[in-house]
Amino acid sequence: MPTVPRVLPCGKGQVLHSGYRDGVRERGQQQYQVRFGWGLAGAHRVAAGAHVVVWVDVLPDAAGTAAGVEGTHGPDGTHGPDSTHEPDGADSTHGPVGADGPDSTPDRHRTDHRAVARGLPVGPEVVAGHLGNATAVAERVTSLQAERGDRCVVAVVAAGSHHAAAGADAAEAAGESADVPDAPDFAVEDLLGAGAVIDALSAVGIDHCSPEAAAASAAYTGLRRAVKHLVSASEAARTLEPTQVHAALARGPELVTIRPGEHNRRA
User: What is the pTM of this model?
Assistant: First the structure.
């Protein structure tokens, strides 16, 4: 006697109608409140309709610039928005001025943030996230939700690493530009930093996560006790001085706003 397959509810093994499945594919992560992507190209994909973008760049690169923002180009090769002037209110600090306050933040970090602001999509508020301020990021999102009287969509973006393309030195010597991929390389420190932010959002009830965001959060929660060791031993850390890595891991809980959102400018 042939076996009759069980009819399961959606999400429990049921095969979706092809039309519905294609619709979900077209929307990508847009049906989720908390999303996760890599680099500027990923930000332009997952930040559609978002109210807050959290740019996670845990370690500086060896050149002292923010990963993936050299030249401040968007994914289409053009300069990002506001490339002719600095965003109003960029790089402001919420909370007490301390180790990460505006008076003690190195000029390099301020320059990096301006470059990030120019490369990211126009509209959402952009804040800097890292391992030390995940709770402050979550508090900012809940505060913004209270101001709006509605939920906030959050795009968490890991900066990732960018390495010189194969043959880049030869191309430069010949006066030509080397082809560089839009997507950054995987960076474990940024994955863990993004996971910390997503975990903090879940802790305050903002937990409608995309699978990508859920996986980043699980990486952080599963490795929570080893995070500092993993970051210190990472590929990116090995290109830096130990003092630079220590300073990055010692950053405080203050929230740095890289760029205010359109809702702030209208207020």
Answer: 0.73
